Amino acid sequence: MAYKLLALDIDGTIKSHSESISDHTLSMISKVQKAGVKVTLATGRMSGSALAIAKELDINSPIVSSQGAIIVSPSNGKCIWHKPLTPQMALGALEALSNSQIEILLYLKDDVYTTKDTPWVRSYGKRNLGKLYFVDDLRNLANKSPTRIVAFGDENEIAKISRCLNKFFKNHLHVTRSLPHFYEILNPHAGKKNALEWLCNISQIRQDETVAFGNGYNDIEMVSWAGMGVAITGSPPELLEVADVVAPPVDKNGLAVILSRLLDQNAFH
C-alpha cells in the first residue's frame, strides 16, 4: 500500500508537553514530505498554536485544529472549514454542565471565554496562543455558534460527567476526552476523523491511503478510521485496541521509528 496522507497529533505524539520536537522526528517528517506525501496536523490545539508547530515542521497542507472543528490554511492562517456548535447545541451543553463545579471554557475559534479568572485559565490561554475573555454567563454567547465547549477539572469528576453526557447526548453531539481532566463538546460533524475525511475528499486521497498517529481518547476515531492507525505507547487502552501499530513512547522518538520503518518499506509515494 502506498500512503499519501500522514496525519499527526501533536502533544504526546510528536512531542511531549514540556519538550521540543526532537531532531530525529523533524528529519523523518521532512523525509516523508519529500517523498510527496501530504502531512497534516490533527490536534486539539487552537489554530494559532497548531500553525506555530506547522511552521516548525514546514508543513504546507491544511491543518486540522480545535479537535477537528476547524481546518486552516498554513499559508495565511485563514479558516477553510468550520463545524461549530449550533446555538441549540451550545445551550444544551451549557445547561447540562451548569450544576457541576468544574471550569468551563467556550471557544469562538481562537477566542476563549470563561467565567472564572484562575491561574490555570491564564496559563492555558497563554500556552495556546489564544485571546482570553471573562464573562458573567457563557449562555449569552450560545447564539454566536461556538467552535467547542471544554470542561476542565478533577479526573474522576470529568470521567463521571463524560459517562453521563455521552449517554445523554448520544449522537446529537461529538463528545470526547482529549486528556483525563479535559472533556470536549463539539458539533457531531466535527472531530478529527470527519476533518480528515474532508481533506481526503478535496485531495482525492482514499481512506486506505492514510496514516494517522495519536495518543489520546480524542484520537480513537481517527486512528480507527485511518488506513494505518498508530497509537503511541502509554495511550489509553481504548486507543491501543483499535490501533494497527503501537509505536514506542514519545521520549523514545516513537513517531520517527515508525516513519523510518515505513520509508524503508517504500510505503510512502
Question: What do these coordinates show?
Answer:
- By secondary structure, this protein is an alpha/beta fold.
- It has two domains: 153 residues, HAD superfamily/HAD-like (Rossmann fold), CATH 3.40.50.1000; 100 residues, Hypothetical Protein, Haloacid Dehalogenase-like Hydrolase, Chain: A, domain 2 (2-Layer Sandwich).
- Helix content is 35%, strand content 23%.
- The protein has nine helices and 14 strands.
- It has a six-stranded mixed beta sheet, with helices on both faces. The protein has a five-stranded parallel beta sheet with strand order 2-1-12-13-14.
- α1 packs parallel to α9.
- The longest helix has 15 residues.
- The N and C termini lie close together (9 Å).
- 46% of the residues are buried.
- The mean pLDDT is 92.
Set out the fold topology.
Elements: E1 5-8, H1 23-34, E2 38-41, H2 47-57, E3 63-65, E4 70-72, E5 79-82, H3 87-97, E6 103-108, E7 111-114, H4 119-127, E8 131-134, E9 148-152, H5 155-169, E10 174-179, E11 182-186, H6 192-203, E12 210-214, H7 220-225, E13 228-232, H8 237-242, E14 245-247, H9 254-264
Helix pairs in contact: 1-9
Helical segment count = 9
Strand arrangement in the largest pleated sheet: 8-7-6-9-11-10
Question: How are helices and strands ordered from N to C?
Answer: EHEHEEEHEEHEEHEEHEHEHEH
Averaging pLDDT over every residue, what do you get?
92
Strand percent estimate = 15-25%
Basic shape: globular
Task: State the name of the first-level CATH class of the largest domain.
Answer: Alpha Beta
> What share of the residues lie within helices?
25-40%
**CATH topology term of the largest domain:** Rossmann fold
| Major sheet description | 6 strands, mixed
Tell me what the CATH architecture of the largest domain is: 3-Layer(aba) Sandwich
The chain-level structural class is alpha/beta
Tell me the total number of β-strands.
14
Number of domains: 2
CATH-level-4 superfamily name of the largest domain: HAD superfamily/HAD-like
Radius of gyration computed on alpha carbons: 18 Å
Contiguous runs where pLDDT drops below 50 for at least 5 residues = none
Note the quaternary state here.
Answer: single chain
- In angstroms, what separates the terminal alpha carbons? 9 Å
